[in-house]
Amino acid sequence: MKSFDYDLGYLSAGSEILERYLLSDDVFWAISAKSPVGEPDFPQLALDNMLLTQARLAGRQLSPEQTKRVEVVISNLDYFRAKWSVAWEGKASQCYQVRERMWQNYILEYQDNQLENADRYPYEVRTRVMLELLKPELGRQFRKEVDVLPDLDGYLKRILMADQFIWEPEIQAGFPKNVYWFLYGRLPSKINNR
To answer: Is residue 191 part of a domain?
Structure first.
């Protein structure tokens, strides 16, 4: 479970180098900041990781002081989103394509070996969450020749076993069930057909 300080630290560190990242050709960017003691290293800087972290923070119950700290970082993100809107949309498009391939690969791996891959779902589904968070960030120029997400979602809806919210309860409010339905279920370790 990642703490408030972990999420805010990642968002703060990312916002410090966000402009250079947006103007680069890279989808992922090394981040040199250190995470809080006892917590995992920060992931690489990527627009979808930033959006996921922002959603995690939005789901937390925050003190007034924590709320102010979050608002400062979010206003910085909003500044770069407005200043570099074309670069932001382009980076969102790059991230979307990469994450969609990753999600498709996971679903294919699951179909090939349900027993070995079902328990990976609570981690792997973060990629599907990122795709949902990226959708509103995609510009009008974003056109996909082949959109596989509806087919993947259709398959997932057929097999997903309803459950409680599968991530930390502290962030659930940031991921409402009507949008993030895939966070409220688990994959079976064996299904009869695909």
So the answer is: no
